[in-house]
């Protein structure tokens, strides 16, 4: 039997991260899933019993955690590295009114920390593999017709821009993807969202697999549709 493909899902204790682990496992992949604390392990423990899921500790906002994870995984070869990170504040707050620390917290978690993870782990991904992060359609500057969610939009636009710069700077032939999951019924998306986690996560997994080997940087949604930067 050929070696199983391996996906590392960073931020996998709940919501879309957990759904993505389930999506890869259902396709016969091995999944390495990261959590921040013991509480976050609960939902993954049942999946880990099938031998296809291993659980690692990582708080992406702690550079020392990223360094430690890199050392623990140094002998692994990944087919997909997916960084799932997203926090928000009250979407009605205007940029000029936001508290400085709230702005910093969102930007660090949604943009800077994912890039630090990529910087530390991208070279574990095989040459035909995919390095991806959870972006958002709200990260599109040209498609912002409705306003609102100003700080969250800015953080995802920053993520997109830094990912694009990272991919160009590395020029390593890998495929880099800024992924929009759609509007999903999660804690952030709310109960009124049209997509369930399983549908979005399944589409994300299929898109990552389909884009493997495409090379360069891409901004797409869970249905593998290109989005305007």
Strand order of the largest sheet: 3-2-1-4-5-6-7
Continuous helix count = 6
- The secondary-structure element order is EHEHEHEHEHEHE
CATH class: Alpha Beta
CATH T-level topology: Rossmann fold
* Contiguous runs where pLDDT drops below 50 for at least 5 residues: none
Measure the end-to-end span. 41 Å
Characterise the protein shown here.
- There is one protein chain.
- With 229 residues, the chain is of the alpha/beta class.
- The chain has one domain (6-221): Rossmann fold.
- The chain has six helices and seven strands, in the order E-H-E-H-E-H-E-H-E-H-E-H-E.
- It has helices at 15-26, 42-48, 63-72, 100-121, 150-170, 197-211, and strands at residues 6-10, 30-35, 53-57, 78-83, 125-134, 175-180, 216-221.
- It has a seven-stranded parallel β-sheet, with helices on both faces.
- Strand 1, helix 1 and strand 2 (30-35) form a beta-alpha-beta unit.
- Helix 1 packs across helix 6, helix 3 packs parallel to helix 4 and helix 4 (100-121) packs parallel to helix 5 (150-170).
- The longest helix is centred in the middle third of the chain and has 22 residues, at 100-121.
- The mean pLDDT is 95.
Short account of what is shown:
Helices cover 38% and strands 19% of the residues. It is built from six helices and seven strands. A seven-stranded parallel β-sheet has the order 3-2-1-4-5-6-7, with helices on both faces.
Topology record:
Blueprint: E1 6-10, H1 15-26, E2 30-35, H2 42-48, E3 53-57, H3 63-72, E4 78-83, H4 100-121, E5 125-134, H5 150-170, E6 175-180, H6 197-211, E7 216-221
Helix pairs in contact: 1-6, 3-4, 4-5
């Amino acid at each position: 039997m050929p070696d199983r493909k391996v996906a590392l899902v960073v931020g996998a204790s709940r919501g879309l991260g957990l759904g993505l682990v389930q999506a890869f496992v259902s396709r016969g992949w091995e999944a390495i899933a990261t959590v921040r604390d013991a509480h976050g392990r609960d939902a993954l423990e049942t999946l880990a019993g099938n031998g296809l899921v291993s659980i690692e500790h990582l708080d992406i906002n702690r550079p020392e955690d990223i360094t430690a994870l890199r050392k623990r995984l140094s002998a692994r070869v990944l087919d997909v590295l997916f960084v799932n990170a997203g926090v928000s504040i009250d979407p009605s707050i205007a940029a000029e009114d936001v508290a400085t620390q709230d702005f910093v917290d969102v930007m660090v978690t949604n943009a800077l920390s994912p890039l630090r993870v990529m910087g530390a782990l991208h070279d574990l991904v095989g040459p035909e593999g995919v390095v991806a992060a959870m972006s958002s359609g709200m990260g599109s500057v040209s498609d912002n017709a409705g306003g609102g969610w100003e700080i969250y939009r800015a953080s995802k636009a920053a993520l997109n821009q830094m990912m694009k710069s990272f991919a160009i700077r590395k020029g390593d032939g890998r495929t880099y993807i800024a992924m929009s999951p759609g509007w999903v019924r999660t804690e952030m998306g709310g109960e009124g969202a049209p997509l369930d986690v399983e549908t979005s996560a399944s589409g994300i997994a299929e898109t990552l697999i389909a884009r493997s080997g495409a090379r360069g940087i891409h901004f797409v949604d869970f249905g593998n549709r290109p989005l305007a930067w």
